[in-house]
Records
---
Amino acid sequence: MQIGEISKKTGLSISTLRYYDKHGLLQNIDRSNGGIRKFDDKDLEALRIIICLKTSGMKISEIKQFMDWCSKGDTTIDKRLNMFYQQEKNINEQIDILNKSLKLIKFKQWYYEAAKRDGTEKNVKDMNLDDYPDDIRKLYEEAHIIW
Amino acid sequence: MQIGEISKKTGLSISTLRYYDKHGLLQNIDRSNGGIRKFDDKDLEALRIIICLKTSGMKISEIKQFMDWCSKGDTTIDKRLNMFYQQEKNINEQIDILNKSLKLIKFKQWYYEAAKRDGTEKNVKDMNLDDYPDDIRKLYEEAHIIW
DNA sequence: ATACAATCTAAACCTTAGTTTAGGTCAAGT
DNA sequence: ACTTGACCTAAACTAAGGTTTAGATTGTAT
């Protein structure tokens, strides 16, 4: 497979694939005599994990580190394993933060629904905590511990 | 409160606060006669939501749009409400993607635990799907639909 | 009055993650 | 041999989100 086909299969642009190659994420990609990149299924498999790591917030340089470890063989198994445990933590933290954001977002939805009903923000802006419905007050309070 | 105190309270650097101000996120911040920014509790409250939106992936320019709407008053209530519904969707999509990443990550953890036990990646690399434990095979398959 | 820390601005700089451009090569079909 | 689409590289460019620098001002404490 050539770069165009890989681009279609992965959804990454051709220039991004070349960028990844240049930065050491695509290790030992074959080339034709003329210098054209020849990808196989293993490369595609590697791209899968690259995309997954990228999507979950890992930096290019960290992914390169991982690919370097892969090339280095069995002596780096422990490092790679630890990386995946660390990345699990990172992802869970991200999810946690997003769930917390959601609380403030939902409070604001309630707030603006009330403003919409009234045709003005005034009333709801002047309300105090005790006037909020219980579930909304809870959202508000939880959100304000964090943000 | 001056910028240094706000920096400590929000965790944003002083230069970031000035950057936000310059880009229209901090609207109608008072200034002393000498030109020094004077923040009050309402400003701090606005920063809370700015930080929350930022953290959940909204761009500076979009946050500015929201702050502009806030300044414009009641005619923009609907736009602001819609923005919060849209942001809820965005966040849920992000959480979804992260949960999917987690499946591939956990498969890799199993993979490298096996490699670690064996002292080599060889055996586990050569295994085929049927040899995986049921739960791991499921992880692998689910992860490979996506990535 | 003077010292001093904290603040101010504009402008340059930085990093990350690519994209675009320009000028060339490769290889398959005619 | 020639055309054509896909590919190649290096280098410049872009955008977002800040950070750093330099030089000036503010305002509080002695």
Note: The domain at 1-71 of chain A is CATH 1.10.1660.10 (Multidrug-efflux Transporter Regulator; Chain: A; Domain 2).
---
Amino acid sequence: MDNLSASLEDYLEIICNLLETSQSVKAVEIAKKLNISRASVSEALMKLAEKDLIIYEGHKGITITPTGLKKAQEVILKHRTLTTFFENTLGLNNTIAEENACKIEHVISDEVFFRIKTFQEYCEKNKKFIEDFKEGHKNTSHE
Amino acid sequence: MDNLSASLEDYLEIICNLLETSQSVKAVEIAKKLNISRASVSEALMKLAEKDLIIYEGHKGITITPTGLKKAQEVILKHRTLTTFFENTLGLNNTIAEENACKIEHVISDEVFFRIKTFQEYCEKNKKFIEDFKEGHKNTSHE
DNA sequence: ACAAATAGTTAGGTTTACCTTACAATCGAT
DNA sequence: ATCGATTGTAAGGTAAACCTAACTATTTGT
């Protein structure tokens, strides 16, 4: 149960996301999505399978294991919470929010993550406070 | 002016911090601070010197160039702003705040950084809002 | 069923950032 | 000035994550 690298977390996250719309995922879809070579994806998938996070049977496609799903969902929750915080509270646009969430989700600790999550929820309940903050950025870029 | 890796940004940041208390810094101090080998530091310093961010003359010590200083100060500002946000607004303890700032500072974009900075300043002016949030964590760990 | 297209793998290479071990240079105390 | 301690460098090695080129395996269209 050694910790995953940022890179492997990304693969797992994408697999989980792709599995929401199809039964099984193919390596080539990941290669396209990440804009990297099929060879690199192949390597990464073997590592994930080695760690029992996915079941990988070449042309038959990729399936996620319960352990893999749990890990993927943790990363996805971090991703979504950060994106929401950047968009709804800080008032940044979706592209920037996503890009940053995608990087930060791999380095943030659980403590900071949970605190941001709670803070974000607290802010949702205090629209006025946030609206007033965002007012100050109406004329700024990246809205 | 290609972008620095997280690792090289860290070296530059530490050099800049150490230079605040002494005229010139030695490689061995960095090795101790980062808990890595002298050999690795030596390598990294040659890369930074190659990029004209520091002037490195072996036993004579390390000095920072104007370009290096500018870059270092950018990273340090990110570091300090994030730490302050995590501590003062989210109410996390200094250790956790520092650890996370140290990672996030290398991956966050300027847009998100500036927005967090502005938001942090906005929060400073609205103590009540933040105090009320922090009240909810009095019994939680990581205060 | 079989050729072409698509998908996956293997082999060998690169870069980054670390390591250890061994050696060289410098500093500092006597 | 010299010897020992400290500091820095060189050589060679590892691991992760990517690459290309060439190969194999599978799927698909006719």
Note: The mean pLDDT of chain A is 93.
